[in-house]
Amino acid sequence: MDFPEIPGYKISRQLGKGGMAVVYLAIQEDFEREIALKIMAKHLLSDASFSERFVREARIVAQLSHPNIVPVYDVGHFEDYHYMAMEYLPLGDLKGKLKKGLTLSEAITIIQSIAHGLDYAHKKNFIHRDIKPENILFRADGSPVISDFGIARDTESETRMTMTGTVIGSPHYMSPEQAEAAPLDRRTDLYSLGIIFYEMLAGTVPFSGESAISISIKHITAAAPPLPDAMADFQEFINIALAKDREERFQTGAELSHALGNLLKNLSDSRANTTLLPRQEMAKSGNAASNKKPAGSRAPKSSRSSRPATPRGAGRQKRNQTPAPNRLETQSSRITKTLIALVILSIAALGGLGFWYYPDIMDKLDYKNESIARDTTAIPSPRQQELLANANKAIQEERYYSPAGNNAQYFLTTLLALSPDLAQANIGIENLFRLYLDKAETAIASQKLDEATNFLNQSSQITFYIQNQELLKEQKELRSLVISMQQQ
Q1: For residue 220, how far is the Cα from the chain centroid?
Q2: How many Å apart are CA 187 and CA 142, to the nearest integer?
Q3: All residues at 6 or more sequence positions from 187 whose CB lies less than 8 Å from its CB, including other chains
Q4: CB atoms < 10 A from the CB of 109, how many?
Q5: CA gap 97, 138 in Å, rounded
Q6: What is the distance in angstroms between the CA of the first residue and the CA of the last residue of the chain?
Q7: pLDDT (tens digit, 9 = 90+) per residue, 419-448?
Q8: Which of 426, 291, 445 is nearest to 362 (CA)?
Q9: Which H or E element spans position 15?
Q10: In angstroms, how far is CA 444 from the centroid of its own chain?
């Protein structure tokens, strides 16, 4: 296998690959030490935003010196390669450890360590925004480390790498405010860490669904299912960690860690050594222990020393109560924001803008829909009809994505949140993509490169839905052309 050649590094093998970069095991020759060499994928060089994000990650981590945050040794650029040399973490990620099984005490220790790392980063005004098992790696001594600050953000910086209204994060672990594309603070990371701890205790994440949209809606509107009976003594902690209102959560990583420490003190040795397994592994082994209370076990006494530390804001609502689903579901303003934002979902920067084309609109545009069958035989519900009518009017008036709350994308994204499999909506998304490419091409011909870039950026936000490879190829070619013309 041919590896990239970077001066000062000798690559031995590939460790992993993502959408943005490939990570190799290499020797840093000056120090004769093993390192993880992260190299940005060459096909992304044509998009300056990816290069900026890659360098930005290195700059962020370079400012963070903490035992539970991955250190960066070197950053550079050689020929067609952007690279970053980091500490080699040989024991893999938390996702792999969860599959093999952890003891309860190990799980608590990992969460506490990551909470300390986050607390440090938050004090430096950085939020990670993508805390998940794949981004928690382990040293040879077993200590956990936070990695992948690719979408982290400096809370004091006025520069934003993502568009306003874009959802950032991983659906199973994102906070309610992330799903709403609302402004974020450090408590979004703590919510994600709470989801990981729930997964450790219950053997599965609290919210799942057939699409990223449905999962995100549950983060905003649904209470997490209760923990198994054997883990009931952690229920109050989970209720606080996963509170929908961030004012009702743990406010700092240190506070979260302290609360877990109090719970750990009350565990017997046998309880602390209980093995936690994913639900499917439990079923395979026939181990039902985590769904039953161990003999002689009981929840800690209800005293201040055994309960989680109470975060600020507890005076408005008892912190040990699970948020009422009915109350949450009737908060119409919250749900409205949800439906606007939720169809904006992708791995690195999830996003979505769309609109509905009635057949007459599609005919006027003379677009072909070869990749999606036109099945318009189903009779829309009254709500769907209303959204379609509003979207059609917005299209006629060329209100594609503005003004806020009264544009085609708003009506279509609302429709997709309610009916993600609606065939006509998917046709509309593909035609919107085609329209953006056509407008970008027209702008390029007129030397209006900023306008072309805007339409290409709009198209990128709905790439998640596009199956037509020819369209995706055309998008890439147009973007490369714009970059080339800008450089000239």
Answers
A1: 14
A2: 26
A3: 175, 246, 249, 250, 251
A4: 18
A5: 10
A6: 36
A7: 667 777 777 778 878 888 998 899 999 999
A8: 426
A9: strand 9-17
A10: 33
